[in-house]
Design brief:
alpha/beta, Aspartate Aminotransferase, domain 2, seven-stranded mixed β-sheet, four-stranded antiparallel β-sheet, 16 helices, 13 strands, 13% strand, globular, binds pyridoxal-5'-phosphate, pyridoxal phosphate, aromatic-L-amino-acid decarboxylase activity, PyrdxlP-dep_Trfase_small, lyase
Length: 472
């Protein structure tokens, strides 16, 4: 047993660090070691229990109701508010769309109105559930949804309007009251994607931050998603989808008695549901409590302010928009250096920052998800960022061979064969095997020249190459 675990530890040592604040995307670290211990112990206690049947495992039923009640209390819910614990933000968003679609079964082409900064989970929902997307451009300076344009996009077949609190890419809260009012005026549901922000924004507001209204206190908001595995600092695998009342939630439930086995009865996309993540979240939320989250929000807020001010002071960088929460996106204020190289240089110095490709009005930028664990090392982060920008400046811009760029620009992903994709991936340096090379800038620069459908296909083929077991 020890040998197996030693092997696992060795494997894990090759990952990005999930603690210590050096990985500024994907992971959320409270910086409190007992939080991990309690989560692990609670996970172990309940991982064999199955949420498939809450009457067989009433502990899971109780913990789910407790978590939903806590989330509803935090987000201005009332006695009518109900919810569902899901496996993550994407599942919460999928279920919000599914519930909205199935509440209007007569529609031939149900529509989803979303700001272009809405999370890709909604594109996935539209894809999976056959819902027509109506993507509305955001303000090109603030990156906030444009309420007039959102209102104008609503029509008779709109089943759901989506905005974010805040958006992942820029960390800004959309004007929820105006958008919700427009939706309500047309009798349409309005989902607030609070996956990344809804657990921390209420605490930031209590600390005096100027947080725009976004929760159930806003008339017209019918559902909110909030991920506990983000700023509730829970172990991965837990999100909550709240609905303003049970009638709104009802249409994402599923039952089937049409087979010889047990009547399948599912509130979520999963059927067997591990009790592990739920119990871990329940334990962490109770352990930290309201005061614990307030303290974590306080240090996170300080870290965000220091990092933001530091970035604004680095020659050549510019923060995008006016971030409302704990996320910061910054871009190059002038040509002459390459942001992908800055990310590579940060990697060399032990930090992971997340490149975001240009899209619509949003230029190529680097994203930071700041958590409580970043508090205390802001100066070190900023010194390394300054050095990384200098290194990128002296390296100069990464250029893609114009012939290669022209070749890539002319490719049609629809007509390429798997073999041609293989050649392209090899040419791009994306061959799978040991994963990614240390220097991503040349690959990212090439990917940036590819139109989005081609980039999607290339990366999917790459994913397939990654998920191919080698010889055993
Ligand atoms: C993270 C996130 C999601 C998706 O959540 P997952 O847990 O990664 O599935 C959806 N919306 C927003 C705003 C997010 O930040």
């Amino acid at each position: 047993m020890n040998e197996v675990l030693a092997q696992l530890r060795e494997l894990r040592a090759g990952d990005l660090p999930t603690h210590g604040g050096r990985t500024l995307a994907y992971v959320y670290d409270s910086g409190l070691s007992e939080v991990d211990e309690i989560a692990a112990a609670a996970h172990a206690l309940a991982s064999s229990a199955n949420g498939l049947d809450p009457t067989a495992f009433p502990s899971l039923l109780r913990m789910e109701n407790d978590l939903v009640a806590t989330a509803a209390g935090l987000l201005g819910g009332d006695a009518e508010t109900v919810g569902t614990v899901t496996s993550g933000g994407t599942e919460s968003c999928l279920l919000a769309v599914l519930a909205a679609r199935d509440a209007r079964p007569g529609l031939a082409a149900p529509g989803l109105v979303l700001a272009e900064t809405a999370h890709a989970a909604f594109h996935k929902a539209a894809h999976l559930f056959g819902v027509r997307k109506v993507v509305v451009p955001v303000d090109p300076v603030t990156f906030r949804a444009d309420p007039a344009a959102m209102a104008a996009a609503i029509d008779e077949s709109t089943v759901l309007v989506v905005a974010s609190a805040p958006s992942y890419a820029h960390g800004v809260v959309d004007p929820i009251p105006e958008i919700a009012a427009a939706a309500a005026a047309r009798g349409v549901r309005m989902h607030v994607d609070g996956c990344i922000g809804a657990w921390v924004l209420p605490y930031l507001a209590r600390l005096g931050a100027d947080v725009p209204p976004f929760d159930f206190r806003v008339p017209g908001v019918t559902s909110i998603s909030v991920d506990l595995h983000k700023y509730a600092y829970c172990a991965k695998g837990v999100s909550v989808l709240l609905h303003a009342n049970a009638g709104l939630r009802r249409t994402h439930y599923f039952a089937s008695a049409d087979w010889p086995g047990y009547t399948m009865l599912n509130p979520t996309l999963q059927s067997t549901r591990s009790g592990g993540p739920l119990a871990a979240a329940w334990a962490v939320v109770r352990h930290l409590g309201d005061e614990g989250y307030l303290r974590l929000a306080e240090v996170t807020r300080e870290a965000v302010a220091r990092i933001r001010a530091g970035i604004e002071g680095i020659n050549g960088l510019r923060v995008l928009g006016d971030p409302d929460s704990t996320l910061i996106a910054f871009t190059a204020a002038a040509p002459g250096f390459d942001l992908f190289t800055v990310a590579d240089e940060m990697k060399v110095r032990g930090w992971y920052v997340q490149p975001q490709f240009a899209h619509g009005s949003s230029p190529l930028n680097l994203h930071l998800t700041v958590t409580a664990a970043n508090h205390g090392s802001e100066a070190e982060f900023l010194a390394d960022l300054t050095a990384s920008v200098l290194a990128a400046k002296s390296a100069g811009p990464v250029t893609v061979d114009p012939d290669v760029a022209a070749f890539v620009a002319a490719l049609d992903p629809e007509t390429l064969t798997t073999e041609q994709f293989g050649d392209l991936l090899a040419a791009a340096g994306l061959t799978g095997g040991d994963g990614l090379p240390d220097r991503m800038a040349p690959i990212n620069a090439l990917l940036a020249t590819a139109a989005e459908p081609l980039r999607e296909r290339l990366l999917l083929e790459f994913l397939g190459a990654l998920y191919t077991p080698g010889p055993h």
